[in-house]
Structure formats: C-alpha cells, structure tokens
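To make this tangible, this section ends with a sequence with its structure tokens:
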Amino acid sequence: MSSPRIATNREAPSALLERFIQEFKFKLCITEQEKHKVYRLRHDVYCEELQYEEPTDPYNKLEYDIHDQNSIHCLIEHRRTGLVAGCVRVVIPKPSSPQPLNQLPLQTYGSQSLTHPEFHPEKLAINSYYEISRLAVNPLFRTKAKEKEKDILANTSTSTFFSVEERQLFSLLASGLFITGYSLGKQLGKIQVFAMMEPSLPRLLALTGFHFTKVGETINFHGRRSAYYIDKQKAESGLKKTLLPLYLHIQQTLAPQLEEMLAQEASISLTM
C-alpha cells in the first residue's frame, strides 16, 4: 500500500469530521458496476500513475487480481460531484479454496519476508484474520493536487473544481479508508488485521491511533514494503477520540449494506 497523506489538521477537528461525514458517502460495492468503479480507480492509480501493475483489462482500463474474488470492496464517493474519491478492499482467505485463495495477498508475494515468531498467518486461526489492501485515493482528492487539477479534469467528463473548504477535508480520506477496512473486518467477526505498507504509512496511521507491529522484513515490491499487523484490542484502545464519530458513522453506514451483501451471497449459494 502506498502512503497517502493522513489527516493531521488540529483546527476544530469535530467540525471537520462533521463536514467530512456530510460531504462524502461510504458505499460497499455490491454490483459489478460498482466494483468496476473501484477497478477503474485502481487502474488510474496503480497502473497509470504509479506504474506498479499492468492493466488487467487495458481496453476498459480496469485493474483487478485473483484475490478480488475473496474481497469486499468499499468506495468513498464525493456527494456533490459524484466522483469516487477513494477505495479499499478487505481480503478474506477461504481455507477450502486452492492456493492462493486460501491465503492473504501478502503471503502470495511476500511469504518469505514474514518473520515474526507470533504474528504470522500460519500460526493464527485462519478465520480470525484478514488483509486491508489496494487502498487508493483519487489524485483529484489529494491535498497537493490543486496544481494538477486542470490537467486531470481536462481528461474527465466533469468540469467541477473544489473549494478551499472542500480541500480541507481531503486529508481525512486515507484515515477514512483505513477505518473502513478495519470496521468491515470487525463486523465480519475478524479480530486480526494484516497490511503490506511502505515505511511511512504506519507512522502516519499512528497519528490516528492505529499502532501497527512490523511482522516482516522489508522487501522490494513496488518500492520498499513491509508486512504489518494489528489486533482488535490494540486498534480500538488506540483510536483517537476525535476520530470516534467517524468510526461510528462508518460502522452504522456499512452495517446494513454488509447485511444486504451477505444475504445476496447466501441466496446465490442456495440456488447453485
């Protein structure tokens, strides 16, 4: 995972959070059309901007991989413009599936780097953990994107520009995406989280109260990356009180959507 800027604005944090909740929408991707919005943003960020991945579907400009079969996808949408501001996925391995669907993505490409004697996926109950990955923030919604806004918008179907007040909220997106990933895992009964991150991102997430433990050696995978771990107790005891309203809002917003998604999946399984 690359390192978008985390919110550190100390001016009226409660007011900023309230505006953020009002101006952005948290949505689980249930339909294929919604998932394609995520895959398109991932293509724009991971394939075109960072050149980390080859496009899976160059014609439609989509990026996805085999682990998306075991993933729940969420996007954050800007209400006024309807633009996708960011996305994240939660990957849940299935023990009965063939490799690599029975493991986390970080095990697929970085298994040799996992060195922690206790916090290793193979030493934990497989139904207890998941991975937060493919976090991406739309370049338009980054705090330093103003100088590039005209060029980016010239290649899109919108001519909307953002006000200073709207830009003040952009630094909350990465925090919101990570809290979203954590909240989804918790609602699924998972208590242990893994993520593959570049060195600066855990330090930035620590500002929100997520204090990760490094559980693997640094490897060269799209730049320098290491595996990190945090459990439910440490995450919830460390979360900054100023972010609690956002955490509760995300939980309350996603709970009925997750229930709908699981009901649909159960219905499909019964008809197969």
Q: What stands out?
A: DSSP finds nine helices and eight strands in the chain.
